[in-house]
Amino acid sequence: MITKIYINLYSKYLLMGSGGSSYRKSSSDYSNPISNSSTGSGIGGGASFENGSEDDCINLTLETRLLSPQQVALSNLEVGDVLSVKLHASAGRIEVFNSDNELCGQVISPDIVKLANCIKKGIKFLAVIINLTGNVCDVRIEHKN
Question: Domain of life of the organism in this record (predicted)?
Fold first, then answer.
């Protein structure tokens, strides 16, 4: 229940002023597809991060369990695989994709607003699978060099 409320609040944050367009999935809806690995160090807090510096974004690292994991997209993956991180602003979420561009799941984290603001600034991120057990997928999201 808390996760659902958080997603709804985050969706409203991303959609403020968008005019409430309907959901359509096309490649132009996404920002910054990523496919390589990198490292970074984490920062804490839950501030909006709109005025964060580029260094703050580059140093941003999140570890999270994917929300709504897609078993078919995850079925051929393993720990260590690198996934794309894309902002789907019109739907109010950040999504993770495999190399075949299949949706693996959605990102949920206390730092999701920071991540979204960094992606909006043009900073690129990737997700590395750190745990994959059945339909549970944990990832580390970090800056892409």
Answer: Bacteria
Tell me the pTM.
0.65
Question: Which residue carries 């051929």 as its tokens?
Answer: 76
111 SS3 class: coil
Domain enclosing residue 91, as ranges? 2-18+27-143
Render the burial of 21-42: b for 16+ CB within 10 Å, e for the rest. Answer: eeeeeeeebbbbebeeebebee
Q: Let me know: does 129 contact 137? Beta carbons within 8 Å.
A: yes
Note down pLDDT in tens along the chain; length 145 residues.
444 444 444 444 443 333 332 222 333 333 333 322 333 333 333 444 455 677 889 999 999 999 999 999 999 999 999 999 999 988 889 999 999 999 999 999 999 999 999 999 999 999 999 999 988 999 999 999 8
Number of domains in the chain: 1
Calculate the CA 22 to chain-centre distance: 21
In angstroms, the CA 142 to CA 17 distance is 28
Residue 85, H or E segment: strand 82-88
